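Journal club prep — side note

Before the paper discussion, L.F. wants everyone to see what a predicted structure for a comparable chain looks like in token form. Sequence:
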Amino acid sequence: MPNKLSRGESQRPRSFIKFEVLAVLACLGLLLLAAYGFWQENLADTFTYAASAGDVTQVTTLLERGVQASVKDSEGKTALGRASGKGHKGIVKLLLTKGADANTRGKYGKTALMPASSQGRPEVVKTLLAAGADVDARDDYGQTALMCAALKGHKDVVKLLLESGADVNARSKSGFTALSIATDRGHVDVGDLILEQKPDLTVSASQSGRSRYY
């Protein structure tokens, strides 16, 4: 019969066992963190999509569950930005009262005022401006809300932004101004409205050099 191992030989050192236990706990901790991060990201996506769809019930439920009003989804967009672009004024107001910042930047550095202006949502634009939205905020391309509205020819939104002091001489990184954009797109009524603000015509030509007012 084989000889029995001594106590020291039959047992692994306690320090080694402790190390194994700690390693297992560390792995479990990392897995839990990863799972929590994935769950949070999914919640953020669900939240912003609900805001985009105008689903007040789901947005309210998720806020009550602890989702932050200013959270960004997996695309880098905010619920406020999505709701603003879709014209869901009620959800925009709800998010603002729950702590969403009107100047939080989403994908491409855009604030909620930009999609609201681009999509021609005057009531949402008013709400955001009343909440302190920066009328001259610029996105990653140097574009302002005024440029976004001028591009689509939304005269009512352009008027609101101008009344709020929007800078008519702001130039994007590509060299465009709201006036040159409106002109190049054929939005003559918008161009005339901007002209009433007496813009500096030396900066009104687009990158292509075409401008009816230059």
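L.F.'s comment for the group: The radius of gyration is 27 Å. Keep this in mind when we get to the figures.
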